[in-house]
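Batch manifest, entry 17 of 40.
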Amino acid sequence: MQPPSPPRARPPRVLVFTRTTDYRHDSIPDGVAAFRALGAEHGFCVDATEQPGVFADGLHPYAAVVFLSTSGEVLTPAARAGLHAYCAAGGGFMGVHAAACTEYDWPFYGELLGARFDRHPEFQPATLVIEDHQHPATAHLAGTWDFSDEWYEFRENPRGRVRVLASADSSSYEGAEGEGHPLVWTHEHGGARVFYTALGHAGEAYADPAFRAHLLGGLRHVMRLTPA
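Output type: structure tokens
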């Protein structure tokens, strides 16, 4: 008689949160579709929601939480408490694009993300300087990366407090303030492993293989599938 087979491990789950109470990006459905496609290809499940109640119910089933172009005040007090507890327990947090335009009234969120959005010039092509090729979100990229986006400026420069992975070449586009400001970074805060990319305004970006690899690398990092 053959011994029973061991139970199969359940695939990791990722929560993609897309609630907006301010500007809403038309690219959000494209972003959700990209994360679902990455999950199908790389063996994780994606739950997408705009309901803050899921945070209050407990985030322990999730290997990572992604704020995908959220905006405004999107969390209830109970949801804030749930996200805080998830981070303290060692959760993974990833912010994409307008995640930096979110929860301005909650100091913990700004510290978690690393910086808050201030302004951006007109959508246009520009060049990113890849500062760190040792991270899975940037390891596939050359020394520079030509991309089209909104080129966020932030209320504070996180350099020195985070591990900067890529920054904008301010000479490559119109409307830049300062030089070489960070656009992609990672750090750990409040127990959580955090990754943020300011890229992802346009829907077509989410069909770009290089950008999808960028998102996957950031996600795998916060899911603790790669070294710190």
